[in-house]
């Protein structure tokens, strides 16, 4: 079940890192608002969060199935 969780967490982490670097540069005034990078950052965070949540849910479902089968 780590097939979704690990890459999803990595994608979300990259998205948050990009967001923090953009926010830092934007607040310092060295960069204008670039929608391409902002869209990419939001996409990475959303896709990563979805994949991580899906991996956790699938892992829970496998555990519940094993528990039902053993009973």
What does it look like?
Helices cover 89% and strands 0% of the residues. The chain has one domain (2-70). By secondary structure, the chain is mostly helical. The chain is built from two helices and no strands. The protein has helices at residues 2-28, 35-70. Helix 1 runs antiparallel to helix 2.
Keywords, separated by commas or semicolons:
71 residues; mainly alpha; 2 helices
Please give the radius of gyration in angstroms.
17 Å
Structural class: mainly alpha
Described by strand count, sense and barrel closure, the largest sheet is: none
Number of strands: 0
Total helices: the number is: 2
Total domain units? 1
Global shape: rod-shaped
Task: Report a brief summary of the structure.
This protein is mainly α and about 70 residues long.
Write the layout of secondary structure elements.
Blueprint: H1 2-28, H2 35-70
Helix pairs in contact: 1-2
């Amino acid at each position: 079940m780590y097939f979704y969780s690990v890459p999803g967490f990595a994608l979300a982490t990259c998205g948050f890192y990009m967001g923090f670097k953009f926010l830092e540069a934007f607040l310092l005034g060295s960069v204008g608002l670039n929608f391409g990078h902002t869209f990419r950052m939001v996409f990475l965070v959303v896709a990563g969060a979805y994949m991580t949540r899906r991996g956790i849910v699938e892992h829970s479902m496998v555990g519940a199935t094993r528990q039902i089968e053993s009973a």
